[in-house]
Design a protein that fits this description.
32 strands; seven-stranded mixed beta sheet; Phosphoribosyl-aminoimidazole Synthetase, Chain A, domain 2; globular; alpha+beta; about 35% helix
């Protein structure tokens, strides 16, 4: 479709706003006229993928969104769950990928500020942040610059605003070289009796602009986030906002104080698309209109025009609908906190957004045309998996060189299994992220119970409203756990199975600290949906996420979609990132006396493997550990191929339930899931974190806990480094060994093994077979050096 010849805009001007020719024709049809410049910009940002999800919304409808804990699901600024004792938890995840690619410090910093506003806009006080980050190879100078800038931005904003960053994940892969991913999750506890919603209501009620001033920073940020990055993207630096965490701290306090007055009818953060988005969404959700005067908006720059006011994404700004007659009460609160607060508009009966500037109408658009009734694209999913996937699936472990109990020859060089374990521990994706989290204040507010690096999920204390919970005369302090997870290599190889694995790993991580998983927020980071492979990856991943969330009873409360994450290769061809559907999951801990970390705790504790045994005796489950898509295959053999681990939901539920029960009974002292790097890496991480050694004998005991198992087979690398199998490593106090094994025989028959015992640190990690062949023998000092200093070594070498 071509642009009408009488259009006041050239095709290039329309395309610059991110609008397709057929979409422009739709705009003209809806308005009954051509839009002006400001209106064209408003449609451009509101019809971007970032705001209206025009390619992804049809796929998101399959997500489960209701459950016994869910109070607010998708559609609001954040999801809200009931955590008992009269308390509610708000949480959400958002991306700031493209801004971080061109301006890493401010891009990441304002990503933190934006997600915090989503939380306190609901009436909740932010209590914690987590982040999920992806970068290219850490050997690359550009990656180092992006990595250091992003971490500095996150730490600066979070530390200054006083919200602890308590956990997260960081991956490194060449697939993200020019397009890093910066996803930030925040949690908050409700401080208001009622959840604050965003739908405007009450004809004649005043609309208040509150917070900071409006400038030209962040211009067109939503459109910028909905287009591929290119060499010219550096010119889009104005689309990156500049944040002020100290002002945001004042905004948090002022908003929460204002909400408690009961004078606020509705509230909306001015995030993506700024004034345009907040006015349109509030009006559309309330079925009303908003009349808004730009002349009342506090500006930090002179001679701004409506287009700039409406598309600015200046930070730390909010829009309120107040009860008529009580606006001055709210204005006084904000002024007391040193913030702007002005009446800039009114709620009107006609369902339009009408914008005034210098006494004239600058824009007039039906609210639903901008927010609810936006374009949707129902694209066709490939009938067959693309060629790259089918080729990758032909790989299996028989393609690898033969190996022995001593090691394996790779490209003419023989490597012992000890050498390979140390190499994997030195890989930035697996290695400790202490260089990152040491820059974060993860203990501000004094509620962080599980520190970063200490467990599989973050644990935050929930201070009771009045006196705590008392059961049988004993007072308990409850907690919430949170994690962010995604193995994007799995999703690349098989989006459906890989996405299921994301959900179950998140749940497994929560179970490892003793938390019951209850709800999910997701961040879908993908390439272009307009390309058949990109849409196939997105569609199949959504299908897998939906199924897994239903199976694990963790409904989706909301999230974010970030598409068009692509960069140009050396030949100038766009290449998508690995499909990366990050899952943020929260869980409940009834008593913080019973939680668990990943490090060994006591000499002599008995070590067990829950899930599929190391020698694959469990033929009745499809969840067999595999080297397909593994870190071992990618790092040691430079190969990304195979099928990722398959998921057995029944086994996952049983294994995770057994782990939680053992923790809550006080039997289990250590719990750690076997993920990237497989069994050997998980054992090593428990040694390093706890500063103890471990004596492991494989395959140990058989499926019933007392029958000698069969031999390990001819692929020792599968035993040590295969991934999957719903596996959790736990350590149990020796005094509870009998009751624990009796419990397992009843509740997890066929899916547990005793592996060995915790030893002194000077023994390190020693893994042997039943025939007393030594597979791995490494000292605690060797493991710790490789694991703890991997990132620092690379930054020092290159900088």
């Amino acid at each position: 479709m071509t642009i009408p010849s009488n259009s006041p805009f050239t095709p290039e001007q329309i395309a610059a706003e991110g609008i397709k020719p057929e979409e422009y024709a739709d705009i003209v049809n809806r308005l009954g006229r051509h839009p002006n410049k400001a209106e064209l910009g408003m449609f451009g940002v509101m019809w971007s993928e970032h705001c209206c999800y025009k390619n992804s919304r049809p796929l998101l409808k399959q997500f489960p969104t209701t459950g016994k804990y869910i109070l607010v699901g998708p559609g609001e600024n954040a999801g809200v769950v009931d955590i008992g004792n009269g308390q509610k938890l708000a949480f959400k995840i958002e991306s700031h990928n493209h801004p971080s690619a061109v301006e890493p410090f401010q891009g990441a910093a304002t990503g933190v500020g934006g997600i915090l506003r989503d939380i306190f806009t609901m009436g909740a006080r932010p209590i914690a942040c987590l982040n999920s980050l992806r970068f290219g190879s850490l050997e690359d100078r550009k990656t180092q610059r992006l990595f250091q800038g992003v971490v500095a931005g996150i730490s600066h904003y979070g530390n200054c605003v006083g919200v602890p960053t308590v956990g997260g994940e960081v991956y490194f892969d060449p697939a993200y070289s020019g397009n890093p991913l910066v996803n930030v999750m925040a949690l908050g506890l409700m401080e208001t009796p009622e959840i604050v919603k965003s739908g405007a209501s009450g004809i004649g009620n005043p609309v208040l602009y509150v917070g900071s001033t409006t400038g030209r920073d962040g211009m067109g940020g939503a459109s910028f986030a909905s287009a591929e990055l290119s060499d010219a993207s550096i010119d889009d630096r104005p689309a990156v906002q500049v944040g002020d965490p100290f002002l945001e701290k004042s905004l948090i306090e002022a908003c929460l104080e204002a909400f408690k007055t009961g004078a606020v009818v509705a509230a909306q953060d001015m995030g993506a698309a700024g004034i345009t988005c907040s006015t349109a969404e509030m009006a559309a959700k309330g079925g009303v209109g908003i009349d808004f005067d730009l002349d009342k908006v506090p500006a930090r720059e002179t001679e701004m025009v409506p287009y700039e006011y409406l598309l600015s994404e200046s930070q730390e700004r909010m829009l309120f609908v107040a009860q008529e007659g009580r606006e001055q009460e709210l204005i006084d609160i904000f002024q007391r906190w040193g913030l702007h607060a002005v009446v800039a508009g009114r709620v009107i009966d006609e369902p339009i957004v009408r914008i005034w500037f210098q006494g004239e109408i600058a824009a007039e658009i039906p609210a639903t045309a901008l927010s609810e009734n936006t374009p949707l694209y129902y694209r066709e999913v490939l009938a067959e998996p693309p060629e790259y996937a089918q080729t990758a699936w032909q790989w299996d472990s028989r393609c690898l060189p033969p190996c022995s109990s001593q090691g394996i020859e790779v490209n003419g060089t023989f490597h012992t299994w000890s050498d390979i374990l140390l190499t994997l521990l030195d890989t930035p994706t697996i290695a400790s992220k202490r260089w990152v989290y040491r820059q974060y204040d993860h203990q501000v507010q004094n509620n962080t119970v599980m520190l970063p690096g200490g467990g599989d999920a973050a644990v935050i204390r929930v201070r009771p409203l009045e006196g705590g919970i008392t059961t049988g005369g004993v007072s308990h302090t409850r907690g919430v756990a949170a994690t962010v997870d995604c193995n994007s290599r799995y999703v690349y190889l098989d989006p459906y199975e890989g996405a299921k694995a994301v959900v179950v790993e998140a749940a497994r991580n929560l179970s490892c600290v003793g938390a019951e998983p209850i709800a999910v927020t997701d961040n879908l980071n993908f390439g272009s949906p307009e390309k058949p492979i990109g849409y196939w990856q997105l569609a199949k991943a959504c299908e897998g996420l939906a199924e897994a969330c239903r199976e694990m009873e963790t409904p989706v409360t909301g999230g974010n979609v970030s598409l068009y994450n692509e960069t140009l290769d050396s030949q100038g061809n766009p290449q998508p990132i690995y499909p990366t559907p990050v899952v943020g999951m929260v869980g409940l801990i009834p008593d913080l006396e019973y939680i668990c970390g990943q490090g060994w705790q006591n000499m002599g504790d008995v070590i067990y493997l829950l899930g599929v045994s190391v020698n694959k005796l469990n033929g009745e489950t499809m969840a067999q550990p595999t080297l397909g898509g593994s870190e071992y295959l990618a790092v040691i053999h430079q190969t990304v191929a195979g099928k990722p681990p398959r998921i057995d939901f029944d086994l996952e539920r049983r294994v995770q339930s057994a782990c939680r029960t053992g923790i809550r009974q006080g039997w289990i002292t250590t719990a750690h899931d076997s993920a990237e790097g497989g069994l050997a890496v998980a054992l090593a991480e428990s040694c390093i974190t706890g500063n103890w050694g471990a004596e492991i004998n494989l395959p140990g005991l058989g499926r019933d806990g007392n029958t000698p198992a069969e031999s390990l087979g001819d692929r020792t690398d599968e035993v040590l480094f295969a991934e999957g199998g719903a596996r959790i490593i736990v350590a149990v106090k020796e005094e509870y060994q009998g009751v624990w094994e009796e419990f397992l025989s009843t509740n997890l028959a066929g899916f547990w093994q005793q592996l060995g015992r915790v030893t002194t640190g000077d023994r390190g990690l020693r893994i042997t077979t039943v025939e007393e062949q030594v597979l791995v023998e490494v000292s605690l000092e060797q493991m710790s050096d490789r694991f703890l200093n991997a990132i620092e070594r690379r930054l020092q070498i290159q900088c």
